Automatic annotation (TrEMBL), chains A, B:
SUPFAM superfamilies: Zn-dependent exopeptidases (SSF53187)
Signal peptide annotation: 1-18
Organism: Ferruginibacter yonginensis
Description of how the protein assembles with itself and partners: Homodimer. The monomeric form is inactive while the homodimer is active.
Domain Peptidase M28 residues, every copy: 257-445
Coiled coil (UniProt feature): none
Name the UniProt record assigns to this protein: Carboxypeptidase Q
Protein location: Endoplasmic reticulum; Golgi apparatus; Lysosome; Secreted
Keywords: Carboxypeptidase, Endoplasmic reticulum, Glycoprotein, Golgi apparatus, Hydrolase, Lysosome, Metal-binding, Metalloprotease, Protease, Secreted, Signal, Zinc, Zymogen
InterPro entries per record: CPQ, Peptidase_M28
Top-rank taxon, per record: Bacteria
Main localization of the protein described in the UniProt heading: endoplasmic reticulum
Tagged with keyword Ribosomal protein: no
Length: 454, 454
């Protein structure tokens, strides 16, 4: 009987203690969230990245400027150590604006188009060939595309509520289509932009050449043009495409990840990474992709410092270089971690736009996942409730090799692919409140991990 | 023993049956959601409301055109009965563009400002008086404001994650401030726009005069101007305000609610209302407020018809007139319901912008609430998970008097008050996917109620 009484007392004490902890931690988190929502820091940093610097493609002058700006922002945020980490990145240049049109029954139809990232160009020559349309990747093998310009017309599925799923599925055309088309004798490829809306803006993005086949020019056309071209082809009239692009791959050059740390007070050797990518496509300001992830990661450092929440574990904000067309920064980060035998306990990436946060995607063993999932109630008040999805981010992905628990900020994805990789990805597309709410939730999770580990 | 066995069998059969129903209903809901997400109907209807018609203030030509357009849209959606319901609405006109500035130490500072809805004007006269600032409503009584132009500077609280809460709290200045200021002798009022961002656009909205006091001119200034004016006043220099506005209340005129029905197959006498409001402020296109609610309500009719889901109960889409400055449509709808002794079992309003849906706010007895809450799993796949908030909408609110269970679409509210009642509330601010996702979830809830009742 006594022992039962003792057990109940202990249980009661434990519950009370847990409740007290929860209340205390909720207060700390609310303090951080309030600070972020009232602050202009993240939004003004984003304004600098977008309006003062603009496009930041790896190897470009914009990327160089962004590295300097990132260093300064991390210092201003209060990081106690700020440094650059060298990495190698491809230097691809677009060259003069692309030219593209089709002739349908004697009528010229201009196309809004853009070279895909890492694509080869026509070296200034206007090439032409009949257009052959495919609406799935398998048709590249079954249709006669020899000597043709292939029009890969795979729309994003509008019925997928998570737009990233549609992007992943339809993206095969952009990523692998050009090399498969080359295998079957096509001379160039035009892909329908990976976009969730219909408008006149082409969306770029990386294509990945297979070295076994010739590297043929690969461009994206706007979704409006894809619809028009599709209709033209339905008429049965011959459609001849004309293309000229001037992009070229200049080879590998040196660049940098930008890193700022708050050293852990108790377990400084345990590293928590929070990051996004500093590079962006050259067509726009890279606001949602991924300026928002950059300034949110810096904001995590700022708010921990501003609210006096010295982390027990080391929190490191990493502004990765070269996510868009090579992952050079991500590779260098892993390499250095291995070289220095660093202990990377957790990494969080924000690379799904600065939209209202909805959850955290988790990629880690189930016991660690359970630890984070039990913290879910801390986040409900701030609109974040979904801890069931799997995933993280391209920049931190390589850390899986050394056993790091990975996570990604899950956002409301409805608008992302309207502007992703297109010239519409500008500062004005970002809501200050949505951006800040993402940063606030990230700060809360980073602080919980820094306090309790996984 | 036998009876236990029997009980288990029954229980098992019940569970299996419930599971089968859930699966079947999920399939029906998915079919409706897919149809909405693929359709362009709601988005194109919104384009017409915003771009072909534009502002639709009660009593205006725009409102008249919108009534005709609404009728046509409901017919095109497949409603089996479409009709107009008369109501009385105030006819308030803004007149020529307002003029406003302040003189601070001899320097002129122009103000971006707009008359509040239903406000009296200065009748074309440029009035002037010293500016006195108050930062909460109680200061109207404690500060000396006699003969002054009062600047009511109550910012929306950025730390409230639900922006409607901040709007409600800070909105007291706009709604009640002018009459309280008049009580203490002020000659006019300038309120800080109820906006969640800082920019140069003033936000209008209704002010409610108390007939016991004189009706003094009431205007809103942009948040940027509010910040500048606040700083000017901090210098201690005298600040003289100058105002001219030309608005006037012309009295009550006849207008209409627009109604389209799908007659219930089994319980036609049981009416389910789904609606938004057709009128909008005169400054912009009324896209998010509340063009989106209108086209979503029409979309509910369209998708039920398009997918062959004849409702068991009567589903009625109501495009309410005069939500913004009087509620004439809402009053007429209740009055008619009482006159005809209609049985209104459920009403759902969408008037929180066409942003990503997050939940349904519920205002009904707990047993009915529990019925809807048990349907929550149908909605998780479509991003809607929150069934705990209370509320509905201004247009359906009066139906509470006759015992109707009320609900409101809860949306992601972070961006709403950036554009609410300002000239930035235009078609381009609406995401097709967010709009459609709201309509799809509304259709699912309306269908469930039509099928099972509450």
């Amino acid at each position: 009987m006594k022992s039962i009484f003792f057990f109940i007392t202990i249980l009661f004490a434990t519950v009370v203690h847990a409740q007290q902890n929860f209340t205390q931690d909720s207060i700390i988190i609310k303090r951080m969230v309030d600070d972020v929502m009232k602050s202009k820091a993240a939004y003004e940093n984003l304004r600098v990245l977008c309006k003062k610097i603009g496009p930041r493609l790896s190897g470009s002058l914009g990327a160089e400027k962004a590295i300097t700006a990132g260093l300064n922002m991390l210092k201003a945020a209060g990081a106690d150590t700020v440094y650059l980490q060298p990495c190698m990145v491809p230097h691809w240049v677009r060259g003069a604006k692309e030219v593209g049109y089709v002739i349908v029954g004697g009528q010229k139809m201009n196309l809004q188009l853009t070279s895909l990232g890492n694509s080869e160009g026509t070296k200034g020559k206007l090439i032409n060939a009949p257009i052959v349309e495919v609406t799935n990747i398998d048709e590249l093998a079954t249709k006669n595309i020899k000597g043709a310009i292939v029009f890969i017309n795979i729309a994003m599925n509008p019925t997928y509520i998570r737009t990233f799923k549609a992007y992943g599925e339809s993206g095969v055309g952009r990523r692998s289509g050009p090399s498969i088309a080359a295998k079957y004798g096509a001379i160039a490829v035009m892909v329908r932009s990976l976009a969730s809306n219909e408008d006149g803006h082409p969306h770029t993005g990386t294509t990945v050449y297979n070295d076994s086949f010739s590297k043929i020019p690969a461009l994206a056309i706007s979704t409006n043009d894809a619809e028009r071209l599709h209709k033209s082809l339905l008429t049965g009239k011959p459609v001849i495409g004309y293309l000229k692009n001037n992009c070229t791959m200049l080879g590998m050059v040196k660049s940098y990840n930008v890193i700022g740390e708050l050293r852990g007070s108790t377990y400084p050797e345990q590293i928590i990474t929070v990051g996004g990518h500093l590079d962006s496509w050259d067509l726009a300001e890279g606001a949602q992709d991924d300026g928002t992830g950059i300034v949110q990661s810096i904001e995590v450092i700022r708010v921990l410092k501003a609210t006096g929440m010295q982390p027990k574990r080391t929190v490191r904000a990493v502004l990765f270089m070269n996510e868009e067309n090579g992952g050079g920064g991500a590779k260098a980060y892993l390499q250095q971690a291995k070289l220095l035998k660093e202990q990377h306990v957790f990494a969080l990436e924000s690379d799904a736009g600065g939209f209202t946060p909805r959850g955290f995607n988790l990629d880690m063993p189930s016991t660690k996942k359970a630890t984070i999932q039990q913290w879910a109630p801390f986040f409900y008040n701030y609109g974040v409730y979904d801890f069931k999805e799997t995933g993280s981010g391209s920049d931190i992905g390589p850390l899986k090799e050394i056993g790091t628990a990975l996570a990604g900020l899950g956002t409301d994805s409805q608008r992302y692919f309207d502007l992703h990789h297109a010239e519409t990805d500008v500062f004005e597309s970002v809501s200050k409140r949505e951006l800040d709410l993402g940063a606030a939730n990230m700060a809360a999770l980073i602080w919980l991990v820094s306090e309790y580990g996984l």
